[in-house]
C-alpha cells in the first residue's frame, strides 16, 4: 500500500516540450487554479460567514451542506439515464431545504445586512461547481493534440525496442500489445498524483491569501489572519482526525469492494447521526463541551420537534439517491488503486462526506478489462511448472497430492470459471536415457498411475530433449499433466535450464492458447488451490501490470534441531525481511519452490537468464542461486515482485548437519552476490524501476554491511557474555575465539569439505557451550545494571575539573547538594549518584566515602588548588584519587548525551526491543506463533551460523556442486580419508613443500569445480533398487583377455581409463603411462568400473603414493554418475545378466557354462551365486580382475525379489519403455536451441578455458575472503579498543557500538512498521474475497475464498 511516489513530484515533464511549455503549462495551471479558488472560497465563505452567523443553527447547516450534491446533476457524456435517481435526490434535498428555511424562526428573522444572506448561495454554488464530477474529470485531461502525439511517438518507440529484443518468441506478441496500455495507465496515475499535488498547493496558497489579505467581515468572526482564531486541542483533533480517518477508511472500504455497506450507507446516514447526537448532547459530555447549546435550540430554548428530524431525513434520503450513480457505475475491483477510486487524493475538514461522495464518482478504467466482472478472468493459461531430479517417494507423492487437490477443486472450476485454464508440467532432469527410464522418473510414473487410477496415459511423444508423457487428470479443472523426461545427452541439465525450457515453452505458445502466468514449484512442495487463488488474484489486482512475480509463504517441514532452526529462520525472513522489501520497494527473491511469474515479465529477462557463465562472478548468481538471480533480473527490468502472505506452501528442508551447511554454502554467497549486483547497478535500477527508491537501496546497504560484519559482532557478544557469566577476562576469550575462527579459515582453505564439516561440528559444540554461558552472563549483567543503585560500570562519565577546597569561605560547602556516603567509593559511583539527582558536578573527598553534588552556579568563582593536594586514594579503586587532606575535593563535571537519561541500560533496551518486535510479529501470525519457540535454538546457534557457516561459505565459494540430494554412496568414503588428509597437510607444512601446496590447491579447486557438478543433473542412482538402461555395455577384461566394446551411446557416456588419467595429470604426463597398466590390468578399463573405487581398492591395484591416492579419490567422487544401474530383479537367464552388468565376454560366458551346465534354471544359478565367497567365485568362475570381481560381487548382492513398491515401479517402467519402442519413430520436429545443447557448455570441453575459469574463481574467492576478514578485523579492533576507553563511552556504550545498535534498532523498527502495513493489506485482501450478497456472488469482483487448512489471515 505504501509506494515510492516521490519520483512523481518532479514536474519537469512540462519542460520536455519547450515549445509547448508556455501554452500547456499555463492551461493546466489556470484550470486547476480556477477550481482551487472556487473550492477554497466556497469553504471560506461557508465556514466564517454562514456557520459563524448566530442565526444559522445546526439543523439548517446540516441541510444546507447537502445541497452541494447537485453536482451529480451535471451530466457527463452518455450517462444521462443515471440522472433519474439524481433528479429525485435533488428533489428530496430541495424539499428539505425549503421546509427547514421556512420553519426556522431565527433564519427568517435574519437581518438583511447579514453576509450569510449572499454567502449561502455563493459558497454552495462554488463548491458544487468545484466538486462536480464533470469539472474534476476535466482537470485530469490535457486536450492538446501535439502533446498526445509526442507521447504516442514515445510509446511506439518503446514498443518497437521491446519487440526487437524479443522477436524470436511468438508469444511476445502478447507482451507488445500491452505496453501502450500499461504505459498509458502509468502516465494517468502519475498525472493524477501531479494534479493532486498542484491542487493542494494552490488550495493552501488561496487559503492563506483569504485569511491574511481579504479584509475582515462584519460578523466579527473573521479578523486579520489567525490572530482571533482560538482553537482548543480537542477542537483541532475533532476537526482533523475524523476527516482524515474517514477518508482513509473510505479508501479501504472501496478497495475492499464493500463500498455500499461501508461507504455509501454510512455517508448517507451521517446527517441523521450528526443531528441525533446534537439533539441529545447530554449523552456525551465531550460534545456538550464543544457545541453551543444556544445554536442548537429554538427561540424558546426547547429541543427540536420531530418535524426537524423529518426534514433532516428527507435530505439524507436525497443524498442516498444522489449516490445511486456511485453504487451502480463506479463499482471497483479488488485492491483498486486510490487513483482509480477518487478523482483527487485529498479530503476536506468541512463537507467531508459530501466531498467524498462527489470525489468518488469516478468510473475505474483498466487497460485489459471492460467491466468489474472481468476481474477473475485470467486472460490466458496458467502453467504449473515443476522441476524434479532426485525427489523421494514421499516428496513426489506430496506434490501429486497437491496437483490432485487443484485438479479436483470445484471452486476453481465452477465459481472462478477457470476450467481448462491450467496445465501442469514436470521437467525431470535425467529422466530418461535413450529409451530407458531412470529409477526416479519410473517412480514418478508409478505414482501418477497410483494417484490417478481412473486415468491412463493419454499421449506420448519423442521430443528433441527426450520424451513427453501426458495424462488428462479428472476433476473440475480438466487439468492435463505433462511429464517432460530430459535426456542429459540431448539437453543441458540443472534446474536453471529446466526453467529456461518451460519459460520458452510458455512464450512460444500460439495466440489462441497463450500463457499468461507461470506457477513455478519444486517437486517436494505441498500447496492447495486457495494459495494459488491468493497469488493469482494479487496478480489480477495489479491493474497496470507492474508486478512481475508474486511469491508465497514457505514453511519448512521435517524434524530435528536443524529443522527447528530453519523454522524460525524462515519465519523471521518472511515476517520482517520479505514484508519490508515488499512495502519499501520490491521483494528480492521469489523462490522457484512456489511463485507466480507473469509471462510478459519473463519475456523481458529470459534472454539474459539463459546466458552461459562467462565470468567467475557470474557463477555465483547464475548457477548457485538461480531463483534470486531471476528476481534480480526482473527488478532490473523495472518489474515489482510482491509477497503474498495469503499463499502457503510446505517444503522439505535439510535435517542433517552436512546437507544443511552445503545448502547454506550455496545460498549465502548467492545472496551476497545478488545484493552487490543490485547495488552496483543502483543508478540504472533506480531509473528503470519506479518502485526502487534511494531509501530502499540504502536499506539494502545496511543489510549487506550487517551480514559482512556479523561474525565479528557475534565474537564481541560472546566475549562480553563470557566475562559476565564465567569471569573470563575479555582479552582471553577474545583471542581464543579469534584464533578458533582463523584456524577454521585455514582448514576451509587447505582441507577437503569432509574435513571442514567434521571440524565445524566440533567447533559448533564449543561455540554452543560458550554461547550458553554468554546468554546467562548477559542476563545476569542486565539484571544487575537495572536493579543496583550503584552499578559497577558507571552509566555516565565525566571530565576531571581539578582539585578544589571542600568549603567556600564561610558560606558552606562548595558542592552543597545531595551529600551522602557511599561504600567503596569511586568517582564513577559519585557521578552516578549526582547524575540521578540531576546535578552536573560531583566531588569526592576524604575519608573517601563522602560524595558531594553541585550545579554550575556552585562552581562559579571557585578557587582551584594544586593537584598534589588531592592525592587520597579512593576506597573502591586505589588507582583513583578522592580528594585530599585537609578538606580538598576531586571535582568532576558530568558528561551527558543530549540530556538523555535512560530508565535502563542500552543493552537491556536493545534486547527488549528486539525480543518485543519478534514476539509481536509472532502474535500477528497466530497460526505460526509456535515458530517463536524455535527462536531459542536460533539464539544458541547464532555464533555457529554467523561465524563458522559464513567462513565455510566464503572459503568454499569455488565449489560448484549443488550440495543437496547427493547419492549417499558418494558422500564420504571412509574415516581413514579424514586422517590421511590431515597427515598430508601436516607433511606439507613441516616440509615447506611449495609444489605440494600448489598441487593441492589446484586439485582441491578442480575437485570443487567438478565434484558433484552433476548432482542436480546426474543420472539418477540410489543405493539400491537400480535398473540398467538399454545400450549399456561395459567392457569386461580378465587377465590376457581382450576387451569387447560396444559402439554408440556407450562411447559418449564413459571415458576410457587413459582419457580419465589424462584429464587428471595432463595428456603428456608420465603418470598416465605408469598408472594406466595398473588400472586396466585389474579390469578398470573405463570410468564405469573406476566409479566407486575406495582407498583400499587403489592400494590393491598398486597405487602406493599417498598424494596420488588423494588425487584419485577426489576425482573418483566425480564419477558417481558413471556407476552402473543394476537391475535388482532375478534375471531370466545368465547371458542377459552378464550383458547387463558389462561382463559378457566369451571367457566369462564359457566359465559360467562350465560351472552351471546348460539347462540349469536361472533361479538356481543365482541362488548359488549369492552363497559363493570371493575365493570360490575366483576359483569356479575365473573372475580374477579386481574391477570385474568388484562389479560381479556388487551385481550378486543386489539380486533379490523386489518389494511391493519396487515391483510396482518396475512394472510401470517396463510398460512405459515398451511404449517408447512403439513411438520411437514419431519424433516431434523441433530445432534444438544452441544454448540448450549440452555439448556447448563452456569451461568443460576447452581445457584452457576451464583452467582460466578455475583460476578466476579462485581469485574471486580470495578477494571475497580478504574483504570479509579485513572488514571483521577492522570492526573487532575498533570495538575492542573503544571498550577499553571508558572516557569515550556514551550511555555506557562506546560511540561506535551505540551507532551500531541504533542503526539496527531503526532497521528493525522499519521492518516492524512494514509488517503492520502488510498485515493490514493481507486483512483487506481476505475481507475483500468474502461475498456480502449471495445473489450477486457471480458478479462480484472477487469471489469468496476457498476454505483452507491454514489461517485465514496468514
UniProtKB/TrEMBL annotation:
GO terms for molecular function: chitin synthase activity. It comes from the Eukaryota. Residues 152-164 have a biased composition (Basic and acidic residues). Residues 1003-1017 have a biased composition (Acidic residues). Gene3D superfamilies: Transcription Factor, Ets-1. It is a multi-pass membrane protein. Pfam families: Chitin_synth_2, SAM_2, WSC. Residues 1052-1122, 1129-1202 form the SAM domain. The lineage of its organism: Eukaryota, Metazoa, Chordata, Cephalochordata, Leptocardii. Residues 797-895 form the WSC domain. Residues 145-173, 1003-1044 are annotated as: Disordered. Keywords: Glycosyltransferase, Membrane, Transferase, Transmembrane, Transmembrane helix. It is found in: Membrane. This is chitin synthase. Its EC number is 2.4.1.16. It comes from Branchiostoma floridae (Florida lancelet). InterPro entries: Chitin_synth, Nucleotide-diphossugar_trans, SAM, SAM/pointed_sf, WSC_carb-bd. PROSITE patterns: SAM_DOMAIN, WSC. GO terms for biological process: chitin biosynthetic process.
